[in-house]
Amino acid sequence: MSSKKVDIQSWRNLLAFQRDPVAFVQAQARRNGKFSQFKIGPQQMFLLNDPDYIKDVLVTRNQNFGRGRGIILLRRLMGNGILTSEGDFHLRQRRLVQPAFHRQRIAGYAAMMVEYAARARERWHDGQTMELAQEMMRLTLAVVGKTLFDAEMEGEAIEIRDALDTMGRVFQSNPTPLQSLLAKLPFNRNDQRFDAAKARLDAIIYRIIDERRASQEDRGDLLSMLLATQDTEGDGKGMTNEQVRDEAMTLFLAGHDTTSNALSWTWYLLAQYPQVETKLHAELDTVLQGRLPTFEDLPKLKYTEAVLTESMRMYPPAWTVGRRVLKDYQVDGHIIPANSFVLTSQYVMHHNPLYFADPETFKPERWTPEFRATLPKFAYFPFGGGPRLCIGEAFAWAEGELLIATLAQKWRFRLLPGQKVEMKALVTLKPKNGIQMRLEQRKNEFTTPVQTSDEKVLA
Q: Angle of helix 21-32 relative to helix 3-19, nearest 10 degrees?
């Protein structure tokens, strides 16, 4: 094949990737199996679609890989936080933040998670219609704002959503090195939109930090910990103002966006599989007997956990991981040269029929202890893996399960007819045009409204 034809194909790949990145990488995997090689514009890319290959990239030989191209934009937004930093500084920051996500602290956050979910469910009414993704974002934003920063965020949910959507569109238009050249042009509208969206989020985060510094109050939350922390295992220093901002921004955004997407897709799936929904309700009624769930209930809510696990299999919030190859790298006889990019995709792996029978069907029942024991480690990896395993994984599991349990106790979500629900693959996997739902109150012996703490004070 001539180089001219190859170049034409590479630009066709670029257009296909921009149009539907999930469909593009899926097609590569179906066509080529475990190892795919292709170009997107001028950039050489490799897709690895095998649990052992993925483990090698993320764990065994992770030091041979740097962050992907999208990290440049992420750094512009999040600064040098644990999601974007590298090397020794990344390890230091992770060490400082990790205590906020220990089991004991998550148990303390659980009551707040349930409290905000209970407020939401009592605010709704039978027959109400809502755009579900927006409502879930509003709820998870309130949870992360309160649990991690002791701040009320619900009133700013729309502003934050609009800023994130703007930045998501910029990310989608940045798959090639050409964008780094375009970004330097004074008339680059993408760059201007990104900076404006970042300024809106910065204003919110800095307001929270400034208010806390002014009060000098230790409220026992993540922000208090960031402001007071010292690296006793390293240089003995704390975080600068900029570092506090970077970590706060990182955890603020990552702490609500992925969970809101996971919840949105979960309700979407439950609306289409009534037999699954019935089993979920039966477990909640049996275990909870009408009371609100607690952190101690989580080990008993096995089917609830399976529902969330299966939802994140079908619609993983983080749908792909990209890495830059630092030195030539060999995979089963294939040489991947330095400066090329390796992709691993949670979405592609989670739909691989070698590991998941009938992968397009929502089957929480597949997640038996026996199935989990035989599943290769990186056949299912919604939170990544290795040194960059999501630091908030345990927080996200607890939040997801508790919010599902609290909301499903009282409500069913029914899809409005005539809508086309599609995926929008940006940094996270979102519903493209939202999901329009109608609320249906459950009719059983446990439908008596549960008072939130605010209502109890007023009573």
A: 130
Show the tokens assigned to 22.
């999930």
pLDDT over 70 percentage in the chain: 86
Phi, psi of 39 (to 5 degrees): -115, 140
Pure H helices in 315-392: 346-350, 369-374
DSSP 416: P
Mean pLDDT of the chain: 86
Query: Which residue bears the tokens 């750094």?
Result: 75
Eight-class DSSP state of 292 = P
Estimate the crossing angle of helix 302-314 against helix 241-272, to 10 degrees.
100
14 pLDDT band, cuts 50/70/90, is confident
358, 258, 375, 344: which is closest to 308 by C-alpha? 258
Contact 361, 367 (CB under 8 A): no
pLDDT of residue 4: 52
With tokens 């109608």, the residue in question is 438
| Number of Cβ within a 10 Å radius of residue 250 | 24
- Element containing residue 14 per DSSP (H, E): helix 3-19
Q: Mind listing the pLDDT tens digit for each residue in 119-129?
A: 999 999 999 99
Helix (H, G, I), strand (E, B) or coil at 287: helix
As a whole number of angstroms, the distance between CA 317 and CA 258 comes to: 5
Among 20, 129, 30, CA closest to 422 = 20
Largest CA distance in the chain: 78
What pLDDT score was predicted for residue 445? Answer: 59
Give pLDDT tens digits for 99-125: 888 888 899 899 999 999 999 999 999
Cα 454 to Cα 200: distance, rounded to the nearest angstrom: 30
Write the pLDDT tens digit of every residue in 79-100. Answer: 888 888 888 888 888 888 888 8
> What sections of 79-102 are H helices per DSSP?
87-97
Chain center to CA of 183: 27
